[in-house]
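During the no-cost extension, the postdoctoral fellow (Dr. R.K.) reprocessed legacy sequence entries with the updated structure-token encoder. One reprocessed record is reproduced below for audit purposes.
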Amino acid sequence: MKKYKKEDLESYTLGTTLTLELLNKKVNLVKRVYIHSKQEKNETLDKILNICNKNKIEVIYSDKIINTLSEKENCYVIGVFEKYESKLDYSKNHIVLVNPSNMGNLGTIIRSAVGFGILNIAIIKPAVDLFSPKVIRSSMGAIFNVNIEYFDDFNAYLKEKRNCYPFMLKATTSLSKVIIKEPYSLIFGPEASGLDDSYLNVGCPLIIRHNNTIDSLNLDNAVSIALYEFTKNDFK
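Re-encoded structure tokens follow.
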């Protein structure tokens, strides 16, 4: 077992909590679980072992493999799973990420999306590798709760009628003034440059207004603010 590479057919979860989430959500894709000798017996480990036993998933005790794969000293459980494809539900609301390049941001956005009940995410290539252990870890396992689909370009994604809301600094409609129509697609550009001007002609472009002492918000912050505004009536 070697460190993860994008072309691998398998990926893995780093830690007991992530591995348990993997087993709870994608047990049919789990190939094996590695456990370090320093892993203490606790309720989470018991749940992991019970699920593995019930589903005949191989459990291997190997300090060497854990030490090779883990980037942190306190990681004592790793779950290996087969990478998979999922399809978007076009009857539901979406987040669309155009050319995301930061693994930590992607994982954080996935976690926020799940928290606000948006379970479909489109990713426009080129983009960061969804199944990198860094993305999985930063999502805190939320990645196993969502449908995520890659598209070669935005037109390939827009194959059905959608209510599109690109978030852009050049937009003139404030997020606070938005008229929400479902099913909607909240569209965000790359971390460094944002969406290009062509998106000004897509749907209803929105701007999240803030003090001019900063030039823009971080991508994960902007997505979270937009998610709150679009879903706030769901949580009354």
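The first strand starts at residue 10 and ends at 14. The CA atoms of residues 40 and 76 lie 9 Å apart. The remaining legacy entries will be reprocessed before the final report is submitted.
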